[in-house]
Amino acid sequence: MGEPALKHAEQTWVYGFGGGTADGDASMKNLLGGKGANLAEMAKLGLPVPPGFTISTAVCTAYYELGRDYPSTLAPQVDAALIALEKESGKGFGDPENPLLVSVRSGARASMPGMMDTVLNLGLNEASVKGLATLAGDRFAYDSYRRFIQMYSNVVLGLRHDTFEHILDDYKERQGFELDTEMQAEDWKAVIVSYKEAVEKALGKPFPDDPKEQLWGAISAVFGSWMNDRAITYRKLNDIPAEWGTAVTVQSMVFGNLGETSATGVAFTRDPSNGEPIFYGEYLINAQGEDVVAGIRTPAPISRERADTLGSSDAPLEEAMPEVYAQLRDVANTLERHYKDMQDLEFTVENDRLYMLQTRNGKRTAAAALKIAVDMAREGLITENEAVLRLEPSQLDQLLHPTIADNAKRDVIVTGLPASPGAAVGKVVFDSEEAFALAEKGEDVILVRIETSPEDIKGMHAARAIVTARGGMTSHAAVVARGMGRPCVCGAGGLQIDTAKGVFRVMGREVNKGDVITVDGAAGQVMLGAVEMMQPDLSGDFGTLMEWADKARRLKVRANAETALDARTAVDFGAEGIGLCRTEHMFFDAERIPEVRAMILSNDEKGRRESLAKLLPMQRSDFEELFRILGEMPVTIRLLDPPLHEFLPHSDADMDEVAKASGVSVEELKRRAADLHESNPMLGHRGCRLGITYPEIYEMQARAIFEAAVNVSKETGRQPIPEVMIPLVATHKELQILKKVVDEAAQAVFAETGTTLEYMVGTMIELPRAALQAADIASSAEFFSFGTNDLTQTTLGISRDDAGRFLKIYEDKGIYEKDPFVTLDQVGVGELVKIAAERGRKTRPNIKLGICGEHGGDPASVAFCHRTGLDYVSCSPYRVPIARLAAAHAALKESLK
Ligand code: ADP
Ligand code: MG
Ligand code: MG
């Protein structure tokens, strides 16, 4: 490994902070992790931060490059940083009189809750515990020491937590103690002896007494945790690359558990569930570390305002420690103005002195993100464009989905904390693995747990909603659910869960595994049965932000729609046209299918024409409706695409019925179906191949389109804009032949009606050959619409319907990073899109370019379309706002470069 060593020779690995200065700052998140960078920034701002140092993410990378070992230049830098820390704190690491105790904390670029548990009180040993005892009393010191042994043994040495719980329980039982508070210093000392014996027995070597050994053990545990299962799952769900690595922050301890004048807590500068500008958070008197989020004791609210909204009778920090509260409020304001974003803070109070332990941009629900972004722009803290960038397009989905109907009947069985808004209906499941398995099968499930831990992430992601019996608004379940956009009710008191029997009881009622419940995360309610839902509100802040987004974007957004309902939804959601109207959906209509079948069954053109003549008025009225709704916005209509056999009856009963109605015998029907049978219909007689073989079908459709356009223009005085699209073209010849059919139909209709309208004829690019031949094809096509569903199938040679068997494994192995049917495969399929766009434009500089596959509603794919210079994307109506926002992001991010 000569190369890394050389590279490492002069590198700085360690960055100190504290005492009003720091080696790093908030801009260095890549190197110091979010936690380390923000601690440095807070120190620089002069805020009260316990001093410490951060070992950079570059060490994590080097650690894995070197086969889990450190560059030789690291140890001297850590030693130097420790000496500086001793100086700054006036304490000595392992000093029996005045010991420096530290926490060892992990921190990646993006926050990864629960990746590795923080080790607190490191540096305690047989000697230094005595020093702590003179400062804070025997009982406190030995209790801290035994906690440290327990935590270190679990997190760093990998021993089971319950090993220690059992020892403690046994001891208490022998002494006849009920509570930990009955334990005196002597009792803790005795427990410590047993703890250490247990460690030695399990590992064959004693618990480390040397603080340096403890420190390196903890550092290695943090770097090691980067590759543990929990971290890997979290990274996968959140698109965090493995290369980023984690940093390690070593920080001198402050104690929130020194008695009634000490406390620990978490706070948000605004409400993370609805965005209201109130000071939000929870704290516990006389507590340390994760006690607040662990959900073991129920914390009290921070502010009076918050206590009132919750109806809490516990004294808020504002009243219990008014001076500390005022200072915390100041710090919160300073940080929010400094970062120009809502902050999530961790703090500890030691003997009435406030210390800040963490700040970061707070996770929030989509509703909160929206309100905070719009409010902050109005407050002048950020610009309108910045506000637009504050809302992730994918997050918008949460706002577009239903909540509980206003006057729906609610059979509430329990009320807990409104931890994450939104509503969902599903079947009760108590186990995360099971939730995941059922969701894979397409079931809607609701995960009900006593509390959650990082092991539950997969199950939480799979569930429609989460309910917990314990834990506050900042418990693990609450934080993760808000991040994932899952509705969540926490701390549903009185919920008695019997996981083994698969049942929970509350207020004398029983709910079994598999029973349907409804969760209202905004109200904190759990209801029996499926409660009626209501559509979302698209005015107010939502409308404002979308207006700002529309100002920022260049890409147009259309919708894929063929029914009047879909078309209206699309227009309501801000679509600027229809990018794909699939005419076959109109053929499937129950009233028309007999005529469609008759057409397919006829043996000659004459017979087909007779049936088509009956279909014509029906198609015409469909198009009229669309043109009326769309006004003067373009409507791209794709001529018939699927193989004809799809329209034939399949079951015997259906066959009988059709036979009776059409006067054709069942045998004849079966013969015809067999004739039309294809072994690979996706690559068979479909798309423009139908138009080539039966031109009369396309002729009828084109006529229906133009008659409809003329009728609506006469009726409304507005000019509909039909764009006729020929599917599955591979060669220029195909398009030339079929364009002629369309143009002749248009001329005939215009001549008959004496009205002429603008229209376009173009093609879908959904075969690789068409992409490569784009220069030629563009001489006949006035527009290209990339049909990226089929283009993905034909480029990758994967049929989407059969991909389920292997695509997941491909993703797991990283062969395709994302499902290529969800996110456009930019280097493969995307390359063909680029080639076609370029070649098409060479022939016809003003050719209109769009995309109409499912990818049109996927933010990453929308960004690709922007960069490739397409004119529009078209997606399902519900995704139109997501595409609008994604297009704005793409434009804004480009101008930031
Ligand atoms: P996470 O990334 O899981 O939030 P942290 O590193 O923030 O882990 O540590 C969790 C908790 O441990 C903090 O919220 C804080 O309460 C406590 N803690 C960490 N460092 C210190 C410290 N130096 N002094 C006192 N408490 C600390
Ligand atoms: Mg933690
Ligand atoms: Mg933290």
From TrEMBL:
Entry keyword annotation includes NADP: no
Positions bound to substrate: R582, R638, E766, G787, T788, N789, D790
Amino-acid positions noted as binding Mg(2+) in the UniProt annotation, renumbered to this chain: E766, D790
Gene Ontology MF terms in the entry: ATP binding; kinase activity; metal ion binding; pyruvate, phosphate dikinase activity
Keyword DNA repair: no
UniProt superkingdom: Bacteria
Alphabetical keyword list: ATP-binding, Kinase, Magnesium, Metal-binding, Nucleotide-binding, Pyruvate, Transferase
EC code(s) of this entry: 2.7.9.1
InterPro entries on file: ATP_grasp_subdomain_1, PEP-util_enz_mobile_dom, PEP_util_AS, PEP_util_C, PEP_util_CS, Phosphohistidine_dom_sf, PPDK_AMP/ATP-bd, Pyruvate_phosphate_dikinase
Domain PEP-utilising enzyme mobile: 443-524
Cofactor requirements of the protein: Mg(2+)
Catalytic residue positions: H476, C852
Catalytic reaction list: pyruvate + phosphate + ATP = phosphoenolpyruvate + AMP + diphosphate + H(+)
Domain Pyruvate phosphate dikinase AMP/ATP-binding, residue spans: 30-65, 74-303, 326-379
Every PEP-utilising enzyme C-terminal domain range: 539-890
PROSITE patterns the record matches: PEP_ENZYMES_2, PEP_ENZYMES_PHOS_SITE
Pfam family membership, one: PEP-utilizers_C
Entry function: Catalyzes the reversible phosphorylation of pyruvate and phosphate.
Family label: Belongs to the PEP-utilizing enzyme family.
Protein name from the UniProt record: Pyruvate, phosphate dikinase
